[in-house]
Fold this sequence. Notes:
alpha/beta; 608 residues; elongated; eight-stranded mixed β-sheet; four-stranded mixed β-sheet
Amino acid sequence: MKTNNEIESSSTSSNLLTGDVELAQERLDELKQTVQAEQLDAIATGDPEGFKAIVDAANQVGVDTDEVARELREREDGINTAGITKELLEMAERAEAQEPGYVFYNPRELAERRGRILEAAKKLDSDDWADVKNVAKVLNACSDAAASLRAGNMTIVADMFDDTLRDFLPNIPAGVLHEMYSSEDMEESRVMQQFVHNVLEGTQDLKVENAQVIAKAAGYENVSDFFNKSTGGVEDTSDIGRFLMSHPELRVLAGYPTGSPENIADKMNLMREQDEFTIDLLVRQMGLPAELVRDIDRGMKGRCLKKTEHETDVEEYSENHMKELTTITKMVAHFGVDRILKIHNEIGIVNFGKRSIDSLEKLERIIDNDEDALREIRDKEIIVSLEDALNDDIGSFAFTESLFRGGDNGYHMPFEVSSLKEDGEEIGRYIDFLERRDLHPSVVVIAGHGQPGGIHIGDGMLFMRDVTEDLKKYHIDDPYVDLSNPSDEAVVNRLFRTMKSDADGSCHLILKSCSQGSKETKTGRSTAQVLADRMHANAPEGSTSRVYSSELPSNMWRNYKDGQLFYVGEKATVITVASDGKIVESKEEIIDPRALRRGDRAEMKADV
């Protein structure tokens, strides 16, 4: 049975299509004059194709329908929210009752109305108690309809109602949700109450949309509003407040700038917004020093670029950046600013994003001189890494945490170096740190970008006195540490003196840096050769010194064999200095066998 409006629409359309313009205009005038709000609703929701046919046909013969169409759009934009909730309520009730034929039409009907329903949700008024009650009834009806339909194996339609319920909640204004959640005398809000309960109890997946809903239920505009007020000293000790504070990652997920920029300018603007968001979050909201955060962000961007398959793919980069920022946010929330600064000040960690909470917990126990922790690692083969804290703009050292972690018999102790001023005073402090705790590495790793004759670390370079002219020309004003310095007080010599031999009687130095095996220097000697001399002169008496490096850009990576970790490279140069001073230079594919069980090393080398 056609409605009056459908008859009017069909008649008008017919007149237009047959060319009777005058009669068509008459019918359009009548339609415009007689259509009231309810009739426009019927056209919009009952027969949208009929109205479209009128407009299309009118345009073909030059009849102006703009005014009618504009009136319809205005009517749709300002649609009465109570009417929408009533409409959805009726749909849900009919679906729950499973009226013959209704459920088969419902997915299309619900899909067509969905956008207007969600828009209507945003216009609800918390001061209008009828609005609040209507929304509560809709939520309950959608939930009941979904349950009833699912029980009848009508899962497709049930999913439509579940999706509507899921999408409807985040779009409801804060005041309405707050009234629904907090009002004691409104039994109709049971779905809202249960939803919040489920999220708080962890029986529902935590999503930003869900967190937004419960933040609104607690009386906030959104999650960001909650964290901004908590940062400003407003403490919320309610269940919801404690829940939000226990999920610091929501700070990132709720406000991180995203987008799909097409041109370079827009991509740069988006990345700038992400930098500003990072600094605001970690400095203003979480209380870290601005200088430290700038260094954190610089290293984070380099690692994220390294993980991005296509460097110009800003969406992939943004996803990586957001994940790492989330990791750092969780870390700061877990430790607190004071403990984060303690770890930074004691062992130089800047690049928290490439660490784990578990590894930092263990490091903190060592920092605090926990005797049980110290005793445990003294029984292992300790791997000490000195890593550039500031210059990894391309993420070359993103994986040192896993790359040099060792196996069951090894422990990785990372230090990050920001400055080489005062002849490497910062490295000297780290050596003091090890000596005070009676910790003696069998393996030392130096990780920084390099070129023949030198390694960039922090604000300066580790290099030989006689290096290439290029290094002298471009880096002579940088603070540097002379690797060829024979003085007992030189930090490199002190570092080698802290070492102890492994079970095989060897001490190992890994240069995780490009070109340190290259002899393209002024003297024709490589950095590795100079350091092998220094190592032999200062390492424990009777030990064999082994220095690993690459002549070309370094390409060391990890691999597994029978569950054990070892390192391979492109025929890396290995300089071995025996206890009697005999030097052997060879090419090997095993860079660091520290992770292998002691008894397996000879077999492992033979297999490779």
